[in-house]
Specification:
Layout: E1 5-10, H1 22-35, E2 39-46, E3 59-64, E4 72-79, E5 82-88, H2 90-93, E6 101-102, E7 105-106, H3 110-127, E8 137-141, H4 147-155, E9 161-166, E10 174-175, E11 196-197, E12 200-202, H5 203-210, E13 213-216, H6 219-224, H7 228-231, H8 235-240, E14 245-247, H9 274-285, E15 293-297, H10 309-318, E16 322-327, H11 331-343, E17 348-352, H12 356-365, E18 368-371, H13 381-388, E19 391-395, H14 398-403, H15 409-414, E20 420-422, H16 427-441, H17 444-456, H18 462-475
Parallel strand pairs: 1-2, 1-8, 2-5, 8-9, 9-13, 13-14, 15-16, 15-18, 16-17, 18-19, 19-20
Antiparallel strand pairs: 3-4, 4-5, 6-7, 10-12, 11-12
Helix pairs in contact: 3-4, 4-5, 9-12, 10-16, 13-17
């Protein structure tokens, strides 16, 4: 293709500006990764209250007189090498709290707030910014930007292609049908084949039916979304658009997540030094574990399969294992983790909350990372485990299945195993996986071989960036 491809990425969060989950990691990592493939990407996100101070050093490049109840401006600037477009609309985003909720729970006008983000993404895609930049591709992320492809399609614009990435089908951006007109959506499109969704609106569905292409964050998740158990009501649309769906596995920032860069560094050649981090991790949690020290770094929710752990952990503890947990979520699951710590002092340690520095120590010092998710679109935790030689024990779902090679007899014989994959996502299957972990641990030569396999496994963005660039090239008009 002649010339650089320009892409407008529209999302609700982006590292290092703001993060509530893995979406931000992907949105923040992709621009630098894809620049090497000849793609000029800008990221449009709202100027939440915590970000408005950045506007002082940025250049205004777009404005809107009435963005669903008030004026709006778009500012351009560089943040950690990312060309960022901040959407300044104080009536929508200048609020105390997080991007989606405040002290009283979710903001009731979230459908309007993120339709506004989508509207501005579509306007910039159609008209360009005042510095002369206009994209060839509009790339929307999840329900928060789901209306952007719809606004493009309904405007009649045909010279900018649209992509929507499904990071998590569980969140669909539902809104009442009586918002249709206020959100500047055409009434004639309110039918089951287009905007209507169980009597209301879904911004995610709108994006899925109108975007030129759909991507998901792993190949396996793309296939799962065409089945009822994962499609969550939208499997029919995914199936009908199967020829325009691509699963592209996420990557991780290997400069940030690097055993070579930790306080107690080690490499694949100096793997024995990982023991120094295990000593530090044990001290941090007050643990004395004779066997493998497993970690859990996760939201403590049903989706993540955390409720399976209390029933299977006793057998693992009796066999010599231990567990360090970092996370927060469902109060009942937080209490269950604390109860395990009380029941097994010195063998189970729990920290409720999130601590970036501690999470790095856990991956550096842990022997295995347990990820028993019931569904997992991609997952980054298992990739961190691979990077650090902390063997992933994962459910056979979504991106977990795409990124870990299970240590079954065939894979061990071929010398390619990188972790343990179990199915179905039940307590019995997880218990069997932990017994397999103990078997591998008992042969330290084999264990270290699998650790080195894991550390060699590519988890960066290079391959994924090439896939995105190829997709952009294919659909660019």
């Amino acid at each position: 293709m002649a010339g650089e491809t320009r892409v407008l990425s529209v999302a609700s969060e982006c590292v290092p500006l703001l993060k509530t989950g893995g979406l931000a990691d992907v949105v923040g990592a992709l621009p630098a990764a894809i620049a090497a493939e000849g793609v000029d990407m800008r990221v449009l996100i709202p100027a939440y209250r915590s970000l408005r101070w950045r506007l002082e050093t940025m250049e205004q490049v777009f404005d809107e007189a009435d963005l669903f109840g008030g004026p709006a401006r778009v500012f351009l600037g560089d943040v950690s090498g990312i060309r960022v477009l901040l959407l300044d609309a104080p009536h929508l985003y200048d609020r105390e709290g997080g991007p989606y909720s405040g002290p009283g729970g979710d903001w009731p006008d979230n459908p309007i707030r993120f339709a506004a983000l989508s509207w501005m993404g579509a306007r910039i895609a159609r008209e360009g910014t005042s510095d002369g930049w206009r994209p060839h591709i509009l790339h929307a992320h999840d329900w928060q930007a789901g209306f952007a492809p719809a606004y493009m399609a309904f405007s009649g614009a045909r010279d900018v292609a649209t992509v929507i990435t499904v990071h998590n089908m569980a969140f669909q951006g539902w809104a009442k049908a009586d918002l249709l007109g206020y959100l500047r959506l055409p009434a004639w499109e309110f039918h089951p084949g287009s905007l209507e969704y169980y009597g209301g609106l879904s911004s995610l569905k709108a994006g899925l039916v109108t975007a030129d292409w759909i991507t998901t964050v792993s190949p396996n998740y793309a296939a799962e979304l065409m089945r009822p158990e994962a499609g969550m009501g939208l499997q029919g649309i995914m199936s009908s658009r199967a020829s325009h769906v691509t699963g592209i596995l996420n990557g991780v920032d290997t400069a940030v997540w690097s055993p070579e860069a930790e306080e107690r560094p080690y490499t694949i050649r100096t793997l024995r030094r990982k023991a120094d981090s295990r000593i530090a991790l044990s001290a941090a949690f007050g643990l004395d574990v004779p066997g493998p020290l497993a970690i859990v770094v996760s939201r403590l929710t049903h989706q993540k399969g955390i409720d399976l752990i209390p029933d299977v952990l006793p057998g693992f503890i009796e066999a010599g294992g231990g567990l360090a947990v970092l996370g927060s979520g469902d109060p009942a699951m937080e209490s269950a983790m604390r109860a395990l710590e009380l029941r097994y002092p010195g063998r189970v340690g729990v920290r409720i909350g999130y601590d970036e520095g501690l999470s790095h120590l856990m991956f550096a010092g842990g022997d295995a990372v347990i990820v028993p998710s019931r569904f997992e679109p991609c997952g980054l935790t298992q990739m961190y485990g691979l990077r650090y030689g902390t063997l992933p024990v994962v459910a056979q779902v979504g991106g977990l299945a795409d990124s870990v090679i299970s240590a079954n007899p065939a894979a061990v014989s071929a010398g390619v195993a990188t972790g343990i994959v179990f199915a179905p996502t039940t307590g019995d299957a997880l218990a069997a996986a932990l017994r397999r972990l103990m078997e591998l641990w008992s042969d330290q030569s084999l264990w270290q071989h699998i650790q080195r396999n894991a550390m060699r496994h590519p988890v960066g963005w290079e391959a994924s960036a090439r896939e995105y660039a190829a997709l952009y090239d294919r659909i660019r008009r």
